[in-house]
Amino acid sequence: ARLTLEDGLGGLSEKDGLDVLDGTVPEKDYWKRLGRGDFREVFFLSTLDRAESFIGITRQRWAALGVNEDEVAAYVQPINQGRTCHIEISVFLDPGDKALLAALDKDMPALGRELMDAGAFFSRPYGPFNIPAYERCPDVVDAAHVVKGILDPAHILNPGRVCFAADRPHA
Fold first, then answer.
1. What is the pLDDT of residue 3?
2. Helices 98-117 and 51-64 meet at what angle, rounded to 10?
3. Which residues are CB-contacts of 22 (< 8 A; sequence separation ≥ 6)?
4. How far apart are CA 164 and CA 154, in angstroms?
């Protein structure tokens, strides 16, 4: 059988596909919000033998905040010929449960630190996980400041962002 180019995929037009790729899909239509309305997640890299431990750490922390452990979902994808894996742990929530959402949000940096202490590697730190990740890699922060100083000598791009805090001059 030969592959053929189609104008759409599963009923999606080319424009729909481009909207997904460039991030212009409305937040309410993001697939992780479709089930319960909101979600919280943590994702990182590690080795497959540690996945169960990380899932347990996250379930335990979230259960202490009021999440039903049975509602915590985990996705583990081996990468690099099975030498490492992407681990993603999510919980899908009612957006009306403001107290639980706030408690989870407040705890996320501490969860990130605990997972890092257990061996998790945040290769794409963002949101609540960027500060704990960058705290552990001052050499990366220093190098990022050097590159930022070269590429943005006027300091106008991403002012006040974690790695580029306004109170620290770029090299």
1. 55
2. 150
3. none
4. 13
Distances (CA, A) of 116 to 16, 23, 94, 109, 123: 37, 29, 28, 10, 11
Q: What is the pLDDT of residues 74-104, one digit of tens each?
A: 999 999 888 899 999 999 999 999 999 999 9
104 by DSSP, 3-state: which? helix
Q: What confidence tens digit (pLDDT) does each residue in 129-165 have?
A: 887 888 888 888 888 888 888 888 887 877 766 565 5
How far is residue 146's CA from residue 149's CA, in Å, rounded to a whole number?
A: 5
CA-based nearest residue to 74, from 51, 101, 46? 51
For tokens 């899908």, what's the residue? 92
HSE, CB side, 13 Å, CA atoms: give it for residue 124: 7
User: Tokens for 25?
Assistant: 């899909």
